[in-house]
Each structure stands twice: as C-alpha cells, then as structure tokens.
Design goal:
It is a single chain. By secondary structure, the protein is of the alpha/beta class. About 65% of the residues lie in helices and about 10% in strands. The strands form 2 sheets. The chain has a 6-stranded mixed sheet, sandwiched between helices. Strands 2-1-4-5 form a 4-stranded antiparallel sheet, with helices on one face.
Length: about 600
C-alpha cells in the first residue's frame, strides 16, 4: 500500500470512471449550463442597479426580473439533472467495484482467508468502496460544476472591473500550500481510521458468532470493554480527521474576508470618484460573494479526494493479491471421473517450521470405501484438504485417474467431489435452499429425497415451516445433529463420483447415526469414498484403512488384517472399545447366579 496520488487516480480512471465517460460528459454539459446561469445572475446585477434603480426605468424592471427568474429556473433544472447523473455514475462505480472485489476474493485460496480477518475484508466492501464513491462523485462534481461556476464568476469580475479583479485575487495563491498539506494529513488519518473500522467489524463478527461461549463464561463485560476501546480509538481518529478537514474552511473564509475588504475599500473609492458605476460595483461584488461557495468546496476537494484515495489504496492492494492456488494457463477440464486417487511421496506444511504431512504415499481405488484413522492432529483432515486443492502440496504429486490435480481446472475438480466436514456451514436461508446448494436448479422432489436418505426428512417436517424454515446464521436454530444431516443431504444431492467425509457423523446420536450410516453406505456404493471417522466401529467394513500418525502412514489394510497385526490400529480400536464399555461395566460385581 502507499501508492502515489497519480497512480491511484490513473487506476480509478481505467477501472471505474472511463466506462461512464458518456454519462459524465452529459453531466458536464448540464454543469456548464448551471455555471453559466450562476455567472449570468451576477452579471444581471449591473442592469438591475444602473437601469432600474438609478434611472428608475419601469419597463426594464419587468424585463430584468423575468430574466432573473428564467435564469434561476434553468439553473435549478441543470443542477438537478447533473446531480442525478453524478449519483448514477457514483453508484454504478461502487457496485462495479463491489462485484469485482467479491469475484476476486472468491478465487482466493483458503490460506488467504485464514490470514485475513473477516471484519477487515467486509470493511473493504463498505467503508473503503463507499469513500471511493464519495470521492469520485464529489471530485467530478467540484471539478465540473464548481470549477466552471468559479471560472464564469471570475470572468464576470474581470469583465466588470479588470483592475479591481487583479487586486482581489493576489491573496488566493497563499492558500494553496496549507490546503495541499491538509490533504496529505487527511489521507494518513483516513487510512488509520479505516484500519480500525476493519478491526471493529472483526470484533463484532467474533462476538456475535461466539455469543453462546461469551455468556457461558460471563465475558460480556470483557467484550464490552474491547468494543469500547476500539470505538474510542475510532472516535479520536474521526475527530482528528474532522479537525484537519475543517481547517480548509476558515482559511478560505479569512482570505475571502480579506478579498471583500479590499473590494469594499478600493471599489467604493472608485464609485465615489466616478471611475465606475454603482451597478458595475454591485455586479462585481455579487460575483465575488457567489464565487465564495464553489471556492470553498474546491478548497476542501483535495482533502475529500485524499480520503477516497486512502480507501482506493487499500482496495487495490487487495485486488493485487493473487491466489497461490490457481489454474495453469493450459489447464483442462476433468470429465466425469472414475475416482482413483493416488498420493505419491506427498509432503505438506501449513507453516515453514512444522511439517503436517511427510512422504505420504497411498492409493484409493476407484469406487472403494477408504478410511483414514488416527489420533487427533495426525494429519487426516490435511490429506482430505489436499485432494480438492484447498492447499497445494509442497513436494510430491496427487493424481485423480492418473491426472495431476494441478493440471486440471479447479472448477471441474470441485464439480466431481462432495465434501461433508465436521465444520458444518449453513446459510441463513431455508432448509430446502441449504440442501439444494449442492446442485443448481434442484427440484423439491430431489431435495426431499436427499433429506430422506440423510435421515433428515422427519425432523424437517416438524419445523414450523418444514422445508421453507429459515435455519438462521450457521444453522443456529438447529441442533448439531440436525445441521450435520442437512450437510449430508447436500452432499447426497450433488451426486459426485468422489465423496470426502470428514467425521460426517460425529455430532449425531446413536439412533441418528445408525440411520445416516445406512444412507451413507448406500450413497457410497459405486463411488470413491474417503472417510475420516471418529468412531472406528463405523469404518470396520472399509475396503482399506490407512492409519495416520504424526503426518505419516504407519499402517494400512482392512479391519481384520490390522487387528491381527496388533499395532497402532488395534490399540486405537481397543481404547475406543474400552471407552464405550465404560468403567461401570468393568467394576460391577458379578451376580451370584451368574457364577453357578
């Protein structure tokens, strides 16, 4: 970040403004009309005073009065039209930028989102882009309407009294230096403010998402304190920005007062001496006073533009970030696949100082059910995440049907896979929409069929609106087991040849798990299924079981072979079996009758 004003203005022109040049030109035409009307109003003061009041000419009174009325009518229509055109352009640029930013971020990989807080990203869509829109609208309006009005009024002043105009304007170049300095300070303060607003949105997001835990641990006061500190920081920065931005006004007001002082003294003496007429003097001073407002807005324009450029700087920094995982230039679409998955000496690390997987080699035959088991943190989910290229391997190759996953398009890769994770994602929409999310244009019948297979139909029908019930953000209105069954239904309706199940039944009670496991077994027939299971009893019928420990494959085989081997798998299975039996079963005394 920290690009120059010229660089950012050039990008804004290319990316946003240039596409609406026609509308802007039309707005400028109406600005020109409004500026001409403003200047003509000041010019009319001469005949009003000289012809009407000094000469007491009644016929000229009506002509001048209707001319003034017509001038104000034209000015009003022109101002309204140019304002609406500039609002249209500003809002179009805003929506274009928001769409472009979302499209760009949707292509970024998971690591990017893990490294950037949600609130910070959201602030780019709201605060930063809105400030850009305001800067563009205000900038174009001031450079158009205000500048042309000022030029027209200055022309009237020089037309009426050249000597007086030259004397008046010697004071204004003095204001240039402080106004430029104000703009630079404004940009720096605005950048700091936007950063704090991003942090504020992040804290709000985390607080609302974790409100259950906050209440459970009685941390409301602590969170309120964090918010209060952040709000106070934003208030201080906004106050500083207001102080800096407001400085331009008193500078221009004082200089305007100096100019009026000079005009009254020098111009008044010229009228008294008969060097000029009263009407000429009033026309001149009217033009000077009317020039005050556009001059004030132009003085504050630099600060306004620098505020918008601070947002543009942050926005373009984000748009310049490239995803680490992207399609190769000549990547091909992978067609409907059989589903054989092969890892060849794969190593991977999330950070440079610790390896998550080391020299992993495994083969998942097409159409088979394969399980990954092992202790927590062993690397099972990492193996699953590498298959759809949520991350890329550090070394080695992952192939699907013999093709390196890095040689095919990510879109076609995703289309051939369905994922059910232990981290359930549901949208604040209807039950039907959440299930159908896995398949475009899914019919209600297909949605209901998937829900039945996922043992979800019965509880859905008990909801107030059935399939049209809004589930709330992240499915907050549903239980953990209900959310997981909707996620399973979503995977079922996608009908992909590869299923990735990351502890897909971990949140279910025994009865629900039995129903879902039966449905999953039916779903997995003829498909390649890679399953991470918390309960080893659910994968005893897997064709192949890989035991993962400390980022390595330590054992592989089916359940019977691994139990006979007596290694890590048997230890895990026996520990889980003992846990399921519980200590009470072991310690209960044997009834006397059972001993006979």
């Amino acid at each position: 970040m920290g690009k120059s004003t010229t660089h950012l203005m050039g990008r804004l022109w290319r990316d946003g403004i240039r596409g609406y040049v026609g509308w802007i030109v039309l707005a400028v035409i109406f600005m020109l009309v409004a500026a001409a009307a403003t200047s003509y109003t000041a010019y009319l003061m001469k005949p009003v005073v000289d012809d009407v009041f000094d000469q007491k000419n009644e016929s000229r009174l009506w002509i001048v009065a209707f001319t003034v009325l017509a001038t104000f009518l034209v000015k009003s229509i022109a101002n309204y039209t140019q304002a609406m055109l500039m609002h249209f352009v500003g809002l179009r640029i805003l929506s274009d930028m928001q769409n472009r930013l979302f499209s760009h971020l949707s292509r970024m990989d998971l690591a990017f989102f893990h490294n950037h807080a949600t609130g910070t990203l959201i602030s780019r869509f709201t605060t930063d882009i809105h400030q850009m829109k305001v800067a563009v609208s205000n900038g174009l309006t001031s450079l158009g309407k205000d500048l042309m009005s000022l030029v027209g009024l200055v022309y009237v002043m020089f037309l009426q009294d050249l000597e007086l105009a030259l004397i008046t304007f010697f004071v204004f170049p003095i204001a240039v230096y402080p106004i430029v300095r104000i703009g630079k300070r404004m940009r720096k303060v605005t950048a700091n403010t936007q950063q704090e607003i991003g942090l504020f949105l992040t804290i709000l997001n985390q607080t609302f998402q974790g409100i259950r835990m906050i209440k459970a641990y009685g941390m409301e006061r602590y969170e309120a304190g964090r918010i209060a500190d952040n709000v106070e920081t934003i208030r201080v920065l906004n106050m500083k920005a207001a102080r800096i931005q407001t400085m331009a006004r008193p500078i221009m007001e004082f200089l305007g007062g100096v100019a009026v002082f000079v005009v009254i003294i020098y111009g008044g003496l010229r009228v008294i001496e008969g060097a000029t007429t009263t009407g000429t003097f009033f026309s001149f001073i009217t033009a000077l006073l009317m020039a005050y407002d556009p001059m004030k807005r132009l003085a504050g324009l630099n600060a306004s533009i620098q505020t918008g450029l601070a947002g543009a700087d942050r926005l373009y920094w984000l748009l310049d970030q490239e995803p680490t995982i992207r399609d190769k230039p000549h990547a091909c679409d992978i067609e409907r696949i059989r589903g054989e998955i092969t890892f060849e000496k794969v190593s991977f690390s999330y950070t440079s100082n610790k390896s998550a997987l080391t020299d992993i080699s495994l083969n998942v035959p097409a159409g088979k059910k394969v399980a990954l088991v092992g202790p927590s943190g062993a690397g099972k989910s990492t193996i699953l995440n590498l298959i759809p290229r949520f991350y890329d391997v550090d070394t080695g190759v992952i192939r699907i049907d013999g093709q390196d996953v890095r040689d095919v398009t990510t879109t076609s890769l995703f289309q051939n896979m369905a994922l059910v994770s232990q981290e359930i994602t549901l949208f604040d929409d209807t039950v039907a929409a959440n299930i159908g999310y896995g398949r475009a244009n899914a019919t209600r019948e297909q949605i209901e069929t998937a829900a039945r297979h996922a043992a979800a139909h019965d509880f859905i029908m008990e909801l107030p609106g059935g399939y049209d019930t809004i589930v709330g953000e992240q499915g907050v209105k549903l239980s953990g087991g209900q959310r997981q069954r909707l996620a399973i239904a979503r995977a079922m309706i996608k009908d992909a040849p590869i299923l990735l199940l990351d502890e897909a039944t971990s949140a279910l009670d025994t009865e629900s798990e039995r129903h879902v496991q039966t449905a999953l077994n039916t779903l997995m027939e003829g498909r390649t299924s890679l399953v991470i299971a918390h309960r080893l009893s659910t994968v005893t019928h897997a064709d192949i079981i890989f035991v993962v420990d400390n980022g390595r494959i330590v054992e592989q085989g089916n359940h019977a072979n691994l139990m006979a081997l007596g290694g890590s798998y048997k230890t895990l299975y026996d520990m889980q079996f003992d846990d399921e039996l519980g200590p009470v079963t072991k310690s209960e005394p044997v009834p006397v009758a059972a001993k006979i």
